[in-house]
Amino acid sequence: MKGQTSLKALLFIAMFPLIISCERGADPGALSAKGAAASSSASSEPDELQGLKLYLGYCFVCHGQNGDGKGPYAEKLSSPPADFTDSTYFRGKTDVELYDFISKGGLAHGKSMHMKPFGFQMTPQQIQSAIAYIRLVNRDGRIDAAEDHGYSGEDIYRNSCVMCHGVSGKGDGRVSKMMNLNVRPLSAETLGEYSAAGLFNVVEQGFPQDSTGVRSYMPAWGNTLTEKEIIDVIDYIRTFGE
């Protein structure tokens, strides 16, 4: 018994620095707003186009494809999602405040539980890019997606598709689980139902909510991805069925 007590004491002493760091508020899942600013300054500038692609992956389901708070899942929520086109409200919010809200979620700020903490899914740079896009929407700005920005098919999939379709295309992405969305697996069987042109049209035009319902809705990517990027992401998706 004495030996067991000594062992427990030694384990406690070894873990003491970790316990103290946790009690001081260390957040292993998401950087603080101050840390995010430092990280952002040390890396490249926020990318509005990447922000748009991330937005369509993470945010459109609730906030709407145009940022007006009227996403396909909005009517299912107990409180309405934020309207990013409301310039009066968002003009009074700093980028640090928006970062903190996105990374830590609604409950951490006394807001809706439906706004999940995305600091576990998005890197600091990605959150900064999402904020840059939200600011653009707030100014009623537009992005010219005609230029090729050098994203590979895998880059595009992991930035914009993985949240619903899952890492390996099984339809088990975090957003699909959270929202109980009906996402078909990108299997050889599913992909085999479409010709090359048909699959291109699906990515380009999406599945509108008014014809498929909320559980099968998919945004149109034609105004977000170039023709080459759509082809590249389809080529990457096809590797799931091999």
Could you characterize the architecture of this molecule?
- It is built from 13 helices and no strands.
- The protein is an all-alpha fold and 242 residues long.
- It folds into two domains: 33-138, Cytochrome Bc1 Complex, Chain D, domain 2; 153-241, Cytochrome Bc1 Complex, Chain D, domain 2.
- The chain is globular and about 50 Å long.
Q: How would you sum up this structure in a few lines?
A:
This protein is mostly helical and 242 residues long.
Notable traits:
2 domains, disordered N terminus, globular, 13 helices, Cytochrome Bc1 Complex, Chain D, domain 2, 0% strand, mainly alpha, single chain, 242 residues, 52% helix
What is the secondary structure topology, with strand pairs?
Blueprint: H1 2-23, H2 33-42, H3 48-58, H4 60-63, H5 87-91, H6 95-104, H7 124-138, H8 153-165, H9 174-179, H10 188-191, H11 196-205, H12 209-212, H13 227-238
Helix pairs in contact: 2-6, 3-7, 3-8, 6-7, 8-13
Kindly report the name of the CATH homologous superfamily of the largest domain: Cytochrome c-like domain
Low-confidence stretches: 1-42
Shape: globular
User: What would you say the CATH architecture of the largest domain is?
Assistant: Orthogonal Bundle
In whole angstroms, the N-to-C terminal distance is 58 Å
User: What's the CATH class label of the largest domain?
Assistant: Mainly Alpha
Task: Give the rounded overall mean pLDDT.
Answer: 75
